[in-house]
Amino acid sequence: MKRAGAKYARKISLLCACAVFFLTDCAPATPSPTPQVISVYTTAAAQPWLTEVYACAEAQAVIIRLSASPPEAQISLRLGEARNLTSPAYQIGSEDLLVAVHAESALQNLTAEDVRALFSRPEGQSANIWVFASGEDVQQTFTDGVMLGMPVTSLARVASNPQEMSNKINADKNAVGILPRHWKAGKVREVFSLPGVPVLAVTPLKPQGALKEILACLQK
Fold this sequence. Notes:
This protein is of the alpha/beta class. The chain contains six helices and eight strands.
């Protein structure tokens, strides 16, 4: 009887151990928190600052999703202050806006008056003037800060983005265009500079939470 009782006790102990193992193994794991997603729009001129946005978001365990237009974004990056800006805006950097030419161009350093004359009345000159569409942030900054509201010539050619502008200047010894310094490359030479143009992060509302932390990181 004692031997049978011992076998029975061992069997019960084994069953209990298995039950405990089974219950522990099947216990639901604590779900990982869903990462927050923040939508960001950037103009072509402000694209170099996306690297810093991603770095700040990673530090906050936030995922960045690029938006196709400013109304869809929680943060909009742009060069220079928009006209009639009413939304909160935070400066996260600065950029020089250049009037740029090919390295072999005959044009040398220009004054602001020289630039206004060149871009408004290029008739009789060999320069091929390049600008951006009037709605682009870089073109608005140039029109307001350099041209002082004067319209550019209707003979000007239009580049779709800074990379295309850089390519056109590099390929044409007579080309004259507008270029943010971050996009200066190759055989491009500057003949005029508008320094310290603010790079802004614009938000629809006053930022809170992770969005506020990312903006604080970008301003450091």
